[in-house]
Amino acid sequence: MDRVKFSKILAASFNTFLFTLVTAIVVPQKSYAAGISGRIEAAIINSDDPVTWQKNGTGILRAEDNGVNITQTFLKYQSKAWNGWSFKSVLNAYADGEKNVGITQAYVTYKPLSASKIKHKARIGFFYPEFSVENTAAGWLSPYFFTQSAINSWYGEELRTAGAEFSWYSLGRQRKSPWTWEFIAAAYKGNDTLATILPWRGFAFHDRQSLHHDRILFAPIPGVISEEGVNGPAWTEPFKELDGRVGFYLGAHFKYLRKTDIRYYFYDNQADPNVVNEQRLYGWRTKFHSLALQHNLNKELRVFFQLLDGSTDMGKRVVSADFSSYFIGFSWRPPAYRSHRLSARYDWFDVDETDNVRIDPNNSDGQALTLAWRYSLSKRIEIGLEWHLNQSDVENRVFFGQEQEQTQTQSMVVVSHLF
C-alpha cells in the first residue's frame, strides 16, 4: 500500500471518528435511546484489466490496484426519539474515488404508534428508496455479496432521495391476514444528472456508494469531451439540482407471512434534458420501473430477484437510451452451520442507444456470475471469499484501441470488523 493511499485512509479514519464524536455531542440524548455502530472491511483483491472507470478507464470493476484494499469504512448513528420521531445518519470513508469522506444517508423518520389498521410514516432527508432486496444490511450493504449486482451498484452510485417520502401501510397480523401491504409516494430534488453514467460507461459491479457532493469519473470519450460533441467533462456529479423541478416515485410493497417480499416502484426524476450548468453537466430525463422479489423456500434457502427497465434522454436527443438489467440470486445457510452463508447470483444488463449521434456510441451489454462465502467468526468478526466473472461489450471502447468485448474476473479474500 503506497503512502498516498495510506494517508487517505488515515485522514478518512480520523474524520469518521470526528463525525462520531460531534454527532454524539450535538444530538441530544435525553429521553431516547441512541446508538453508534459501524464496519471496517479489508480485502485482498486480484482483478483483471481493463483499468477501472475510477481511473478514467473502461473496466467495470472497482479496484484501482490489486493487493490489500480498505473496501468499506462506515459509521451509523441512529436515535429513537419520543412520539415516533427518529434520526439516522451514515458516514462513509473510502481510500478510492474522488471524494474520500462524506455522508451517504442522513434523514429523519416519523413513525407514530397507532391502533389503526392502516398506519402512516414518513422520511425526510437524504436516503435510499427501498427498491432493493439485496442491499438490506447496515450501511446499505449486501449480507450476501461483497460485489453488488449491476442494478444496486448503479443505485449506490447515482441514486438517492433528497426530499420527502410518505407511506401508508397495514400489518397482516392486525387484520388476521397473511398479507402485509405498504404504498409509498415521494417527492425530491437533486437527481437531475441521474443515469449519466449508463450511456457513457455502462453498468458496473462494486460496493462503493457515492458520497454527498461526490464525483464519478469515466473514460474520456471523444464524443463527450470534444467541442464537436457534447463538450462536457469525463465525469459526473450525481446529486445535482439543475432545473428546479420536483421528481417523484410511487411504490408498493406486499409481504406474505415471513416468506415472500414483493416491491414495485415507478421512478421519474422529471429533469429538463435541455438544461446545462457552468460545469457542462446536463439534465437527464430518467424514468424507470423497478421490481424486486424475495422468497424464502425454507429456513435455510432463499431466492431473490430484481428487475430494472427504463430510459434516459439528454439534450434534444443528443443522448437517448433505453436501459435494463435483472439478476437472480440464491443464498443458503446450512442447518448445522448457521454462521456460514453461501450465495450465488447471475446478472444480465443492457444499454440500448436510441439516438442517431454516431460520434458518441452508447450501446453496451453483458452478463456476470458472482459466488460468495461468508462466515461469522463472532458478533464482531466476519471473513469471506468471493469470485466474480463478467463479460461486457461496450461500444465506445474502440476509441481507446480496445476490443469492445472484454471479460473480467475478480477474486477477493475479505475480513470485516463490526462494532
Describe the structure.
The chain is mainly β and 419 residues long. The protein has one domain (3-418): Beta Barrel (Porin). Helix content is 10%, strand content 47%. The protein has a 16-stranded antiparallel barrel. Strands 8-9 form a two-stranded antiparallel ribbon. Strand 14 (319-332) and strand 15 form a beta hairpin. The model is unreliable at 9-32 (pLDDT under 50).
Instruction: Write down the overall mean pLDDT.
Output: 93
Uncertain stretches of 5 or more adjacent residues: 9-32
Gyration radius, rounded: 21 Å
Which H/E pattern describes the elements? HEEEEEHEEHEHEEEEEEEEEE
The CATH architecture designation is: Beta Barrel
The major sheet is characterized as:
16 strands, antiparallel, barrel
Termini gap = 25 Å
**SSE-based structural type:** mainly beta
Number of strands: 18
> Considering the protein shown, what is the CATH homologous superfamily?
Porin
Number of domains: 1
Alpha plus pi helix count: 4
CATH fold description: Porin
How would the global form be characterised?
globular
Beta-strand percent range: over 45%
User: Which strands sit side by side, in order, in the main sheet?
Assistant: 1-2-3-4-5-6-7-10-11-12-13-14-15-16-17-18
Question: What fraction, in percent, of the residue positions are helical?
Answer: under 10%
